[in-house]
Design goal:
mainly alpha, 19 helices
């Protein structure tokens, strides 16, 4: 069940109708409804994985209470180890086992040894990378004495499975989201309208922008040997736009849906392509993940106190591996880490932060999206070779976009989104539009609806890119 499908709209409409009367019965009834609705939502993909998320939730609920009760450090470490082991074992089994086995077999072949790679086909549960990180942060914070665990099992199940952000984040911390399940407050009309604004903006970015970039990207990356020059450059540029509009659209819709239910989720994007350094880019891109790795990997490794270079590189390599079981993601994460280290070196020598033109940072980030998008390292190398090949650079790139009429309409839609990013780089769409005059707001609403209806690519698969992670 995906946000942009009719099935979800019907599901959420029914859920919203029931939500109000049930909430008036109290916080316990409201939380139980959230759990039931979230399990229906998650089970729509594959009901068998409901047992997986329930098991993970129960383990961390019990471990959190045990860590809090324990007075001896060794006992607390034991229960934290149980929590981390269960979560990481589930993540490794479903996401990385096949990758590790294939890599080990390839290594044996390189050493001249005969070995057959076992066939290992495991269905990746949707959202497992997100909810395991969310529950791990819960037990870690309790271990650090930064959080008191909840004794209400239904509240905790609702926190883990909350359907607006279950599948692709934001990765919420228990200290901010869990208390919202402990209270029941009236939902003001501004929260409803603000939530609707975020949902509409997310639909526009997903259906009108991201899904129109997708076909050309898939065409070029799927047949990279058939293209060179402008077509490849265009595909790389379009993918950098596609992944941003696709993922930020999911986050906007998730925040909008949650706000309509009386919950506030964290901001996950703040105009990352307006960044003037790679450090600033990661302060603005997938903020909930980058801060998670900072707080639970980089700082525990030593942070800036000792071996900061190795800590940085290892953190980015793990971040790359989090995105998928492929050497392309390790390359992507590793080069981002090296880029950040280069900026730190510049600061030590020159004495000030790196401040590059935003266009240069975006070009660099876009080039690094190549291994992220490629199926394997070989394909990534072919894309780089085709990109810098002299062939076909004489072709008019405007013709590749479908002619002047289609280009003009698409450019206007892109300019609208890009202009909002530049003008309101530290505000989300709802916060920005809330300050406009009524005529301006309604004009924007009609413009977005028209853009979705007239330009939306409804033939494209409604899946979001980050579902695969």
């Amino acid at each position: 069940m995906t946000f942009t499908t009719l099935t979800f709209l019907v599901f959420f409409g029914v859920f919203l109708l029931v939500y109000g009367p049930v909430s008036r019965r109290g916080v316990a009834a409201r939380n139980l409804l959230v759990v039931l609705g979230s399990y229906v939502f998650y089970g729509w993909w594959d009901w068998r994985f409901l047992g997986l998320i329930a098991f993970s939730s129960l383990v961390d609920y019990g471990c959190g209470l045990a860590i809090h009760r324990a007075t001896e450090k060794q006992v607390r470490q034991f229960w934290l180890g149980v929590s981390l082991t269960c979560n990481l074992c589930l993540l490794i089994y479903f996401k990385y086992t096949g990758f590790f086995l294939a890599s080990f077999t390839d290594l044996l072949h390189q050493l001249g040894m005969q070995a057959d790679s076992p066939v290992w086909k495991v269905i990746l549960p949707v959202g497992i990378s997100f909810y395991t990180f969310q529950t791990m942060s819960y037990t870690i914070d309790i271990y650090r004495r930064e959080l008191t665990p909840t004794r209400n099992l239904v509240q905790f199940l609702a926190f883990v499975s909350f359907f607006p952000q279950l599948v692709a984040g934001p990765i919420e911390r228990a200290r901010t989201l869990l208390p919202q399940f402990e209270r029941l407050t009236p939902i003001p009309s501004e929260a409803l309208t603000g939530g609707l604004r975020l949902v509409l903006w997310g639909y526009f970015k997903k259906i009108t922008l991201a899904d129109n970039c997708g076909p050309w990207v898939a065409e070029v990356f799927g047949q990279v040997n058939a293209y060179a020059g402008w077509p490849v450059a265009l595909a790389v540029m379009l993918f950098s736009l596609q992944i941003y509009f696709d993922f930020s659209a999911y986050s906007d819709i998730a925040r909008g849906l949650a706000r309509m239910l009386g919950f506030e989720l964290s901001v996950n994007f703040r105009s990352p392509y307006q960044a003037r350094s790679i450090r600033e880019f990661w302060q603005r891109w997938h903020i909930s993940l980058s801060t998670w790795f900072r707080d639970y990997v980089y700082i525990p490794l030593g942070g800036n106190r000792k071996h900061s270079q190795w800590n940085t590189l290892l953190t980015f390599l793990l971040s790359g591996l989090w995105h998928g079981a492929n050497f392309t993601f390790l390359l992507w994460g590793g080069v981002h880490g090296l880029w950040l280290l280069a900026e730190r070196g510049w600061k030590r020598v020159v004495g000030r932060e790196v401040k590059l033109p935003t266009g240069i940072v975006m070009v660099g980030v876009s080039l690094l999206w190549i291994p992220f998008r490629a199926a394997n390292l070989s394909e990534a190398c072919r894309v780089f070779y085709s990109l810098f090949s002299s062939a076909k650079w004489s072709t008019n790139p405007l013709l590749l976009l479908g002619g002047p009429v289609k280009l003009s309409i698409g450019a206007m839609a892109l300019a609208l989104a890009w202009g909002m990013d530049m003008r309101y780089r530290d505000l989300d769409f709802s916060e920005a539009v809330a300050g406009w005059k009524p005529a301006q707001r309604w004009g924007m609403y009609y413009l977005l609806i028209a853009g979705i209806a007239l330009l939306g690519n409804f033939s494209q698969s409604p899946q979001f890119i980050y579902f695969q992670f």
